[in-house]
């Protein structure tokens, strides 16, 4: 009954979705055009915004005859790379990446991110950590002064399945808020990640020192990784409602 869901999520109402789709595409195209060069090893993130980045990458590889090697952050990313006939690799063969491009669920003023809405946060963090430059692409809905203002679903945390109850209790006791086990859309069972783990979503009550909180949660036995990306992103491209691209 466990359902695999990684990298896919539905977005809001139809008209706002159409606008957001355009914004995602603008951000993704700008990031690929500005950061990808011939002979790069590229980390390919997960989610719906990254779909546009891979689309643009494939166009450029064909038109400019670029030699690009792609390292995926999820099964979804792997399938995208293969679908576009791009060169697929891994961290065994390419442990150093020139650039990683990925989406985010929320980006604050300090470029701290919440990621993992699609459940791929662990591999995303590993790949981003191996890249010289970590570039984020997002639509205007992800732009925030302080985490929690835009993304209401909390911080995703990947955990070893047998430990999800003690980890949930420990987080609530120490940091407050509510922790829930992420269930599949069908409600038939929990979401299972690409690494065969579960995802907890921690709805926090107030802004925190995210560096400290990230560290403290990571130290709880059974926590694999958190969706807090602190001090990792170098630049963010936001596609805006008016058709422009804003960077931070
Ligand atoms: C998946 C992620 C995604 O990058 C994040 O959820 C953003 O997704 P989208 O581009 O579909 O809004 O972290 O784990």
Describe how the helices and strands are arranged.
Blueprint: E1 3-4, H1 14-35, E2 41-44, H2 48-64, E3 69-72, H3 75-83, E4 87-88, E5 97-102, E6 106-107, E7 113-114, H4 121-129, E8 131-139, E9 155-159, H5 164-175, E10 178-181, E11 191-192, E12 198-203, H6 210-218, E13 223-226, E14 228-229, E15 235-239, E16 245-247
Parallel strand pairs: 1-11, 2-3, 2-5, 3-4, 5-8, 8-15
Antiparallel strand pairs: 6-7, 7-14, 9-12, 9-13, 10-12, 15-16
Bound molecules: ribulose-5-phosphate.
Pfam families: Rib_5-P_isom_A (PF06026)
Organism: Denticeps clupeoides (denticle herring)
Keywords: Isomerase, Phosphoprotein
Q: Percent of residues in beta strands?
A: 25-35%
Count of helical stretches: 6
Structural class: alpha/beta
Task: Report the helical percentage.
Answer: 25-40%
Number of E-type strands: 16
Instruction: From the alpha carbons, calculate the radius of gyration and give it in angstroms.
Output: 17 Å
What gross morphology would you assign?
A: globular
Strand order of the largest sheet: 4-3-2-5-8-15-16
Would you identify the regions where 5 or more consecutive residues have pLDDT less than 50?
none
Distance between the termini: 42 Å
Let me know the largest β-sheet: 7 strands, mixed
Q: How are helices and strands ordered from N to C? A: EHEHEHEEEEHEEHEEEHEEEE
* Residue-averaged pLDDT: 94
Hetero groups: ribulose-5-phosphate
Pathway: Carbohydrate degradation; pentose phosphate pathway; D-ribose 5-phosphate from D-ribulose 5-phosphate (non-oxidative stage): step 1/1
GO molecular function, one term: ribose-5-phosphate isomerase activity
Pfam family, one: Rib_5-P_isom_A
EC number: 5.3.1.6
């Amino acid at each position: 009954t466990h359902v695999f869901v990684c990298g896919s999520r539905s977005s809001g109402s139809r008209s706002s979705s159409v606008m957001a789709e355009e914004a995602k595409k603008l951000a993704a195209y700008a990031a690929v055009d500005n950061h990808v060069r011939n002979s790069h090893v590229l980390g390919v993130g997960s989610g719906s915004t990254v779909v546009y980045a891979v689309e643009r990458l494939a166009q450029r590889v064909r038109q400019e005859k670029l030699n690009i090697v792609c390292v995926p952050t999820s099964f979804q990313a792997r399938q995208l790379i293969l679908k576009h006939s791009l060169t697929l690799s891994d961290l065994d063969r390419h442990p150093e990446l020139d650039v990683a491009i990925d989406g985010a669920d929320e980006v604050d003023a300090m470029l701290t991110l919440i990621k993992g809405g699609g459940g791929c946060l662990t591999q995303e963090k590993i790949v981003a950590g191996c890249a010289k430059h970590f570039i984020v692409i997002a639509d205007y809905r992800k732009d925030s002064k302080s985490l929690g203002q835009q993304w209401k679903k909390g911080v995703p945390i990947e955990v070893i399945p047998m430990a999800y109850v003690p980890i949930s209790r420990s987080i609530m006791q120490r940091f407050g808020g509510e922790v829930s086990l992420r269930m599949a859309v069908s409600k038939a069972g929990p979401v299972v990640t690409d690494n065969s783990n579960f995802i907890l979503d921690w709805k926090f009550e107030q802004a925190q020192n995210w560096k400290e909180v990230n560290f403290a949660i990571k130290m709880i036995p059974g926590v694999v990784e958190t969706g807090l990306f602190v001090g990792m992103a170098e630049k963010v491209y936001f596609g805006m409602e008016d058709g422009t691209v804003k960077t931070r």
